Amino acid sequence: MASVPEKYKPLTPYLILSNEHAKRDPCVHFWSLVYFVQRAIEIDKASPECATFLGEKLKYLEEFKAQNRQIREITDELEAQCKLEEYSKKLFSFADNNDRAEVFNKSSSTPFCFCAFERNVIKAFHSAAHLMDILTIFGELSEGIAEMRKYARWKAAYLFNCMKEGRVPIPGPMADSEEKGDLQGKSTDLTNNAARPSKNQTEQALSPQRNESLNSSHPTNDYEKSLARTEQYSNAQKFCKYAISALEYEDVNTAIDNITKALELLKGFIPLQNAGNNQARQFSISRRQCMDQACMECSSSSIFLTH
């Protein structure tokens, strides 16, 4: 197999992700390579070295798809999107939960160093962000996924720099501080520079403010609550897509199951909407009463003036 052309080196993380899942997960293996090829074509498809390399990958993808047509996540883009989204969220949750649980602060070594498990947490943030990049194959990311990707990129960069410098990282989101400067201009990917966040991405990822107490390990601010609501809407849409896909295969039971899940998610928003509607009605009634009172006062004034 030909070595990766120099022009494609920034895309190496996606090739590594594909290779890591070659035997573990055909869906991740296939679509990671699809994303790599699509991006590589945008960079260079004409030079002999790149054309040869792309030819090998395209041939492999065609053969792999033909040999795995029984796997719906390979042949059905909707199924693939749902599978990759779910997997990326699992990786993100694993990394985020361990980070917020201050797993990095439990090392007794001096000077501070990262153990294998802590390195896996960093890798999980990286992999989650890369999987969310791959999701763009199927269209624009939802607001919730896009925010999650920004945070995963920033957190991976921050933790990686802490690891290189032997510093104890601060768990969870971080307020705008001197640490922000540590992320600028440094290599942050575990394999190369491909996943380094830009200055704007870093600033956006740092925007959720938090109490700097290290004992706080659960999201409580309005930003994260809003993000959670967005994710609920996104999940409801996902279940509806699952149902539509199931109907295409005449799988009625699966369709009903997913529609039911979507309805359960949406029912949670009904009290909020009703409360908002009640407030709007009360405001309208109060406004009308004020207008009626004003008209009566104006009428009384007119009568007084005419006499």
TrEMBL record:
One of its GO terms (biological process) is protein transport. One of its GO terms (cellular component) is endosome membrane. Residues 231-266 form the Vta1 C-terminal domain. Residues 171-228 are annotated as: Disordered. Keywords: Cytoplasm, Endosome, Membrane, Protein transport, Transport. Gene3D superfamilies: Immunoglobulin FC, subunit C (1.20.5.420), Vacuolar protein sorting-associated protein vta1 (1.25.40.270). It is found in: Cytoplasm; Endosome membrane. InterPro entries: Vta1-like (IPR044538), Vta1/CALS_N (IPR039431), Vta1/CALS_N_sf (IPR023175), Vta1_C (IPR041212). It comes from the Eukaryota. Its main location: cytoplasm. Residues 11-165 form the Vta1/callose synthase N-terminal domain. Residues 185-220 have a biased composition (Polar residues). It is a peripheral membrane protein. PANTHER family: VACUOLAR PROTEIN SORTING-ASSOCIATED PROTEIN VTA1 HOMOLOG. Belongs to the VTA1 family. This is Vta1/callose synthase N-terminal domain-containing protein. The lineage of its organism: Eukaryota, Metazoa, Ecdysozoa, Nematoda, Enoplea.
